[in-house]
Amino acid sequence: MMAFYFSRLVEIFPFFLRGLWMTTKVAFISLILCTLIGFFLGMIRSSNNIFLKRIVGVYVAFARGTPFVVQIFIVFFIFPEWGIQLDAFPAALLAMAIMGSAFVCEIVAGGISAIHKGQWEAASSSGLTKFQQLRFVIVPQAMKVIVPPLVGQYVLLIKDTSVVSVIGVMELTRVGWVTVVRIPEGLMVFALVGILYFSISYPLVLLSNYLERRMAV
């Protein structure tokens, strides 16, 4: 019986590859969005504007303090009641961007805050604007602190793509649930799902470990 299930799994393996492609696509696009939004919010979070800092703080607290699946349901089921109708794929990207950017924001804000205030004073005395101080002086130094945990956060975000299956996105986890109906050998099916997730996550784990060693030197 196990041999029969295995042969069936081999036959439908291309179905898993399509799920892997969808997972990779969701992860890649959402990581770009998370990084861009997170860096922008992180700079605001580390600024002296109390009003904007508090707004970003509320956003970060909500995104980090609520389950990701709840955020997906809000985007996919509640937003249409407010006139914002999204298909499953863009809804998944938006939910990933909301959740991921909050974590990236905290990483970036922490990295910027770690820079000694003397660097700010030196940049200011050079006649640079606030934006130029961040771009040319502060952020390049903060990257040493930011990059290793940022790559580690990317790994977590890739694994969180499994949650978007609840709104019908046909990524790896969804493929696994569909397959286990046809092949009632859950361990075999989800072992394959786990291996495929591992194949796209582990290179980032290695990169994170490398960067931590490299930045520590």
Would you give an account of this structure?
- The chain is mainly α and 217 residues long.
- It has a single domain (31-216), classed as Orthogonal Bundle (MetI-like fold).
- The chain contains 9 helices and no strands.
- It has helices spanning 2-11, 13-45, 50-65, 68-78, 88-113, 117-125, 130-160, 172-182, 186-216.
- The radius of gyration is 21 Å and the shape is elongated.
Order of helices and strands: HHHHHHHHH
User: What are the segments in which pLDDT stays under 50 over at least 5 consecutive residues?
Assistant: none
> What's the CATH topology name?
MetI-like fold
Taking the alpha carbons of the first and last residues, their distance comes to 54 Å
Features:
single chain; mainly alpha; MetI-like fold; elongated
